[in-house]
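Support request from a user on the community tier.

User writes: "When I paste my structure tokens into the form, the page sometimes reloads and wipes my input. The last time it worked, I copied everything first. Here is what I submitted, just in case something in the input itself triggers the reload:"
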């Protein structure tokens, strides 16, 4: 039966790899690829100029640096808390110890500029790797770039110089190895236990690795009982079970052994903390990053609904895991977004390729799909030819040079990383250091990391944002003080706190100004330092 629509002209349809002449060797070496430009844009955008300071809007990195320095000096892994007066000598599970040593070494050589540059490089490498993985799985270049830009918007909420950026990178690698082995049996899956050995000592996000293993085990079990390839599935489940066991054993190779796992479970099951720590609460979709995640989720639903070849069961389960994780906790938005892109990019790309040849679609729409598919195919062909990565290497080396020279290349300042004095008590910390105040100092939990970075070992804090160390009950008492609830003085009295550093115009600052026992020692636009005299 004849088609309802006239055929598209042959010169507008590209159903096979276009013939592209190979560029000359020197041009292939020097011309930047799309992935090179993508990496350079992310690296420069997250480390240079005003945007570079975005990564330091959280002070966690402060105690990571100081802890790493302590370990480098003592040649021993930290096992008790050295930073607070409250928990001094108490067991501390510094589960990111390996990251702390690495970041302390970087800070020693390159300062805060190096810390920011390193974090930006990890983020850039993660998204470039995600692009490579998606393209290798048959994704359309233009579609993948678009999806990754949306994912970047969702991930921006956690653009911070902290060890979690390594978990983003490990998530992409872990999924790629695991999913590739599921589709095409390979010994590469045996790399997972080795990856876990590093992941468990770098960041608590290693839990996601086991969640993905569980998803693939569940999908494999369902396929075994209800699918047709029972023998093949049985062999896959045997390999996957072995790798899961080896990965579990590898996770115990950490300075704390199995008690670390018990500690992580207790921490994540503390409802008081989980309901009040900002990054663990469900996302507020009035903000741009959360809206980007919602857009990505809608695209995922559309991609699954319109795909001619339905996604595999395991991919559907991974999408459900990613969606649930993103809705459950804000901190999961980056990894959830990356997982969704890796799954839906090939689906959406295939849908576009099929639509370019579907006579049931309006001609003008087929032309658009055909052009997009043809353009992306040509770009992918060129992308495969540019493998010199010359400019990527040049930019990276220049960035390291700048970090080693106080952020400057010649007389131009390219990287200038510092803690914002409008967000952190920079001026007050200078006063504390100059007056040789030993504290301990009661302050906000999210200021604790900065105070540790700036004042340790001269001065200790009463608390910081290592919430798993202090526990839920301690933070209940802390919030009573900060919110000036009835009995707020009790915690300060019991812990013999004589120094308080809080934001200017905060409720606690206003209350202390009205309390005769407390005197203002310093005040600026950001913070007020109080001292209590004792008779």
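"...and here is what came back when it finally went through:"
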């Amino acid at each position: 039966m004849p088609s309802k629509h006239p055929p598209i002209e042959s010169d507008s349809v590209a159903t096979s790899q276009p013939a592209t002449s190979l560029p000359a060797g020197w041009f292939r070496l020097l011309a930047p690829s799309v992935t090179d430009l993508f990496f350079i844009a992310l690296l420069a955008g997250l480390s240079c100029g005003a945007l570079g300071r975005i990564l330091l809007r959280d002070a966690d990195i402060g105690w990571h640096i100081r802890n790493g320095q302590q370990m480098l000096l003592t040649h021993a892994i930290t096992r008790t808390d050295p930073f607070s007066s409250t928990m001094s000598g108490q067991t501390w599970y510094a589960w990111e110890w390996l990251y702390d040593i690495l970041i302390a070494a970087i800070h020693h050589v390159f300062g805060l500029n190096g810390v920011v540059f390193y974090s930006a490089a990890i983020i850039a490498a993660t998204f470039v790797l995600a692009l490579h993985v998606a393209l290798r799985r048959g994704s359309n270049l233009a579609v993948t770039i678009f999806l990754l830009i949306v994912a970047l918007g969702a991930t921006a909420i956690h653009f911070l110089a902290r060890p979690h950026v390594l978990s983003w990178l490990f998530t992409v690698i872990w999924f790629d190895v695991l999913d590739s082995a599921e589709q095409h049996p390979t010994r590469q899956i045996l790399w997972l236990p080795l990856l876990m050995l590093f992941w468990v000592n770098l960041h608590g996000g290693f839990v996601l690795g086991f969640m993905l293993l569980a998803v693939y085990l569940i999908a494999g079990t369902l396929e075994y009982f209800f699918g047709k390839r029972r023998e093949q599935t049985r062999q896959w489940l045997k390999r996957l079970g072995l790798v899961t066991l080896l990965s579990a054993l590898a996770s115990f190779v950490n300075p704390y052994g199995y008690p670390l796992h018990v500690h992580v479970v207790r921490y994540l099951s503390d409802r008081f903390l989980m309901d009040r720590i900002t990054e663990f609460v469900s996302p507020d979709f009035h903000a741009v990053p959360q809206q980007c995640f919602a857009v990505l989720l809608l695209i995922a639903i559309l991609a699954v609904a319109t795909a001619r070849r339905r996604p595999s069961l395991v991919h559907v389960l991974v999408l459900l895991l990613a969606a649930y994780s993103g809705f459950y906790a804000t901190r999961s938005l980056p990894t959830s977004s990356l997982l969704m892109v890796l799954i839906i990019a090939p689906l959406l790309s295939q849908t576009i390729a099929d639509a370019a040849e579907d006579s049931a679609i309006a001609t003008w729409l087929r032309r658009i799909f055909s052009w997009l598919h043809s353009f992306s195919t040509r770009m992918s062909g060129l992308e495969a030819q540019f493998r010199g990565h010359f400019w990527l290497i040049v930019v990276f080396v220049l960035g390291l040079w700048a970090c080693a020279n106080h952020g400057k290349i010649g007389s131009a300042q390219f990287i200038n990383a510092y803690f914002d004095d409008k967000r952190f008590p920079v001026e007050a910390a200078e006063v504390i250091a100059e007056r040789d105040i030993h504290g301990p100092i009661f302050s906000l939990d999210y200021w604790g990391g900065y105070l540790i970075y700036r004042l340790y070992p001269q001065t200790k804090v009463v608390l910081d944002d290592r919430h798993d160390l202090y526990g839920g009950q301690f933070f209940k008492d802390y919030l009573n003080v900060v919110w000036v609830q009835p009995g707020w003085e009790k915690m300060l009295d019991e812990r013999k706190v004589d120094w308080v550093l809080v934001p200017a115009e905060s409720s606690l600052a206003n209350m202390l100004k009205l309390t005769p026992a407390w005197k203002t020692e310093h005040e600026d636009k950001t913070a007020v330092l109080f001292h209590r005299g004792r008779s």
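Agent notes: The reload is a front-end session timeout and is unrelated to the input. DSSP finds 22 helices and six strands in the chain. The two ends are 101 Å apart (CA to CA). Escalated to web team.
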